[in-house]
Design brief:
Largest sheet: 2 strands, antiparallel
Distance between the termini: 20 Å
Oligomer: single chain
Number of helices: 2
CATH superfamily: Alpha-ketoglutarate-dependent dioxygenase AlkB-like
Strand content: 15-25%
Mean pLDDT: 94
CATH topology: Jelly Rolls
Low-confidence stretches: none
CATH architecture: Sandwich
Radius of gyration: 15 Å
Order of helices and strands: HEEEHE
Shape: globular
Number of strands: 4
């Protein structure tokens, strides 16, 4: 576990939350179930080439949302943020292909 204290300003955090809310208008939050049928304690959505999902069939990445639509593209600013953070922790050449967004 790595804690990157102070990596985002308050205004950047606010913009990140707004961006996640915008993504959720295209890929609505769902409360998935685990393979045993228990519901997750959070709702989630994703953006990017694939999204993370879970249901009775198990945990996996999927190219489509539960509603059958493709996940929305990852916003450039979110991709840039992921790349910048990866570079700061020594993961040079990192390329994000998905972003899981959890809502607790």
């Amino acid at each position: 576990m790595l804690h990157l204290k102070g990596i985002l300003t308050h205004d950047q955090q606010v913009r990140l939350v707004e961006m996640c809310r915008d993504i959720a208008t295209v890929a609505p939050f769902i409360t998935p179930v685990m393979p045993n049928g228990s519901k997750f304690n959070c709702s989630m959505t994703s953006c990017g080439q694939v999204g993370w999902t879970s249901d009775r069939e198990g945990y996996r990445y999927s190219r489509t949302q539960p509603n059958g639509r493709a996940f929305p593209a990852m916003p450039d600013s979110l991709d840039d943020l992921a790349t910048n953070i990866a570079n700061r922790v020594g993961e040079k050449g990192y390329l994000a292909d998905t972003c899981l967004i959890n809502y607790y």
